[in-house]
Write a structure and sequence with these properties.
Distance between the termini of chain A: 47 Å
Structural class of chain A: alpha/beta
Strand order of the largest sheet of chain A: 4-3-8-7-6-5
Order of helices and strands of chain A: EEHHEHEHHHEHEHEHEHEEEEEEEEEHEH
Oligomer: homodimer
Shape of chain A: elongated
Chain lengths: 395, 395
């Protein structure tokens, strides 16, 4: 595990592109290898894919509601142990602008940013002296934290005073940060106080237990907020702390393999599979089709759990979304940095219709299987039902 | 962060013992250092304490309801990235018996254990041959996974057959594992089938989206289950993926420091503090008192947010619970392994009355402050109120 993302492997790994949106029932990864190689990397791959997909998805939900406001990752202190390292990377992939996690910023070339801490302010006898010292140190990007004693009666007035002093030296205060209280009320009051002093250019940032729902609500209330610092719920995926991706044997010794289990949704799709994405006339995503490797184009996709539900797809445009990532132990695609993946991720999400992206009761994205794949699974299930009957007769 | 738990530090760190239960408002750590040293380790300490306390607590809740049944950590694949490494350690501290996370087992000397995988079974044409091969490899601790095709009609019968073959070789099948379906029903049926074949000694293990509530419910239904493999909810702390511990400046240049904030619960306790635990006549924990460092015994503890609520504690037995951990950059206590800490943790939890440990609506553990500490905070708040009034007159 120390060599996370540096494992060596002699088989082939196919994956949807990093940063690709993950849909239910979609095979995002296909591993072809000797069984022992495939098994050794199982936990590692699941850990990486499950966690980083979870956090990138959470970040993209916040980006979706935040529009072009600044989004900064403040999560490391509340992250799940060392999980914070890759949480910050995934946050950038999902659409965050920067992170206060310097270690991850160094590892993955992420934008680093932050503001001053309460402790810095508390260590001065007068808050305004702390603000002055900080502004002198970072004149270009000064953000002053204004809630240490009282936001409106002490914090914002001291920030205004320092902003005026900065103007005299030819600098501009970049922003103030609210870290407690009602952000809708406080941001409106602070905006008014700043504007009254001709400080329209000073940005207002907020931080404190934010998530996509609170960000959406604040912006709907027309709170004049320019950026959000998000911690806990971003880096832990709160309220959903895990993405339950699985890794299953589907082919061995040239024979498709089945797993049935007691829970219908845990029945796997046997055989080596490929996946194609269907697009509507405007190039928006319509649905995905999972088929056997030797199938190229199919006419209809079926609900994997109900043969009676199907959609004709033959007239749709389509594109392959599975690519070889590792071949014979070597990476065969270009290694991209998180910032580049973020651009790709954003482009792809733009092609996903809004009804799938809404926060409340989203429409379910269509993922279907080919008739051949459906029938193969049915045949395999039947052969086990046959074994059951034989077993039962024996006893 | 690569050097997590190996940081060097030249100040002093006081902590409640590792494995100690953490109560709201309790200072679990006191750092005395140059401000830059204290600040550099802030995020690291918060990350370690918040996450590992969260997971150890989650594990101890499961241990509490599981009695002496076996509890095995299966979480790494669903853990939050590298957070899984310390999650497994914390799970053992909280009362788990073993982990399937081999890397953490090696790092922290934890008991490692596991069962066979679905893929192993699927790679054989006949399930019974997979069971035979596994039993031949691990004759001492064979656990057979019985839900790959159908638990009761195929899985348990094949396990019984292999158990009988093992008996002929002088071995005993250690257990079967159910991984899907209704565990109450399936465990009762499987127990009956095993007992009918004189296999009373074969244990029944279950795994699949378990948590303390499901474990409690299964045992209340008298499901004959001998052990639980717990993954996601254990290693992510689901539904509470973060413990919101904070780290605040309380003293600087010999002056107690305050932070007020807009939210009452975020007002900190100023000054260097000590903490004492009060015990009732049976030695059970009654409550904790937070006081200034120079106070030794106090008569009464006060609700930190309401002076009108107080408890007399002068007649109680008490014990110190804050100890120096690091002095002048060196660890001054003996380094304990997780297994030892687990024993200590269990002992301590036994001294916490049941009403604080129940899962539904637990009684709140009493944490109060001394009058001197309460008054110090009030005086500091008043002095900032004074500043506010002066500011307001100026404008």
């Amino acid at each position: 595990l120390q060599y996370l993302e540096k494992f060596s492997f002699t088989g082939n790994i196919y994956s949807v592109q990093e940063g690709e949106i993950v849909f239910p029932n979609e095979p995002v990864l296909r591993v072809e290898a000797d069984i022992i190689e495939a098994q050794i990397i199982e936990t590692l791959l699941l850990n990486i894919l499950n966690f980083q997909s979870l956090i990138a998805t959470k970040a993209s939900r916040m980006r979706q509601v935040a529009g072009d406001k600044l989004l900064i990752d403040f999560g490391l202190r509340r992250a799940q142990g060392l999980g914070g390292i890759h949480a910050s990377k995934a946050a950038i992939i999902g659409g965050f602008d920067s992170t206060s996690n310097l270690y991850s910023a160094m590892l993955f070339d992420l934008n680093a940013s932050g503001t001053l801490a309460h402790a810095f302010i508390q260590s001065y006898d007068q808050q305004v002296d702390a603000f002055r010292a900080f502004a002198a140190l970072y004149p270009e990007k000064t953000i002053l934290l204004v809630d240490t004693y009282d936001t409106l009666s002490l914090g914002v007035p001291d920030a205004i005073q320092v902003a005026k002093e900065m103007e005299e030296r030819g600098h501009r205060l970049f922003g103030i940060r609210l870290d407690s209280g009602d952000f809708s009320y406080l941001s409106k009051m602070a905006r008014k106080m700043l504007d009254n002093e001709e400080l329209q250019y000073v940005n207002i940032f907020v931080s404190n237990q934010l998530d996509e729902y609170i960000i959406k609500s604040l912006l709907e209330q027309k709170a004049p907020i320019d950026g959000f610092g998000v911690g806990t719920s971003l880096v832990t995926g709160k309220e959903d702390g895990a993405l339950d991706g699985v890794y299953k044997l589907a082919m061995f010794n040239d024979k498709p393999r089945l797993k049935i289990s007691e829970d219908t949704v845990k029945i796997l799709l046997p055989g080596i599979k490929n996946i194609i994405r269907y697009l509507d006339e405007e190039g928006m995503f319509y649905g995905d089709g999972i088929m056997l490797e030797n199938e190229s184009s199919i006419k209809e996709i079926y609900n994997p759990n109900n043969y009676l539900q199907s959609s004709r797809v033959e007239s749709f445009l389509f594109e392959p979304i599975m690519f070889k990532v590792i071949g014979n132990g070597k990476m065969v695609i270009q290694n991209k940095m998180p910032k580049e993946i973020a651009v790709y991720c954003r482009q792809r999400l733009n092609s996903l219709p809004d009804e799938f992206k809404r926060l409340e009761n989203p429409h379910l994205y269509k993922v279907g299987v080919s008739k051949n794949l459906y029938d193969l699974r049915s045949r395999l299930i039947q052969s086990y039902k046959g074994k059951e009957r034989i077993e039962q007769r024996k006893r």
